[in-house]
Every structure is written in structure tokens, then in C-alpha cells.
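User: Run a structure prediction on this.
Assistant: Running it now.
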Amino acid sequence: MSGIASGELEKRRREFQEEAGHAFDQMLGSDGQNGLVTFAEREDRACELGDRLTRRLLEDHLEADEGLDPGAVVDCPICGRPVSCVGSWETQNREVQTRRGKVQYERAARRCSHCRRIFFPHG
């Protein structure tokens, strides 16, 4: 994750560990079962909590993607002309349905002034 400064990375690690701790508490709770009786209830809760942590990791990873950085000049995939960052980029909120639920992230979109199309660097 070269896109995240070490201080920010440590902050995100602490936040994730705190969220994982809450998931642990929701699963085990103070009574040792946290109101879960049947195997199906236990499995549903474990899957729900694991999926939530998985989505969090995906969102953090996507947020650190250098595709959000508008600094580099990239070629338009449609006409092949270079598109610089000055006045030709914007961020758009995206939502993707994953195997673990919906993940939201922000992505840098470029607007080619020649063909007037919006595209996303790095695919």
C-alpha cells in the first residue's frame, strides 16, 4: 500500500482492530454465547461479522489505490491522446457488489477534452 503514509496506515490499523474487537464481542459477548443458541444462528452471526470486516478491508484498500491520484498524465483509452490532471479530472463515488456485500469507494475519473468521454485510469 504505497499510497498510504505510515501514520495514516497505523491509524487505519487501530480502527480496524477496534472494529474486529467489536465483532469478537458481538459473537462471544459477556454470556459466552451472546444469545446465540442454534448452530445456524452462530454461523449467520459469524458470517455477517466476517463479511463486514472483509468489506472494510476492501474499502480501505480501494481508498489507498493510486488510481485516485490525479497527478499523472495518462492516455485516453478512446482516442489515445494525453490527458493531464489540470481541469480534466473529478472524483466519483462508486459502489460495487462483491461476494461479501456492497463496497463503496471514491475513484478518480478523467475527462478527455478531445473526445469528451469520462474514463478511469488503471481500469
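Residues 68 and 107 are 5 Å apart (CA to CA).
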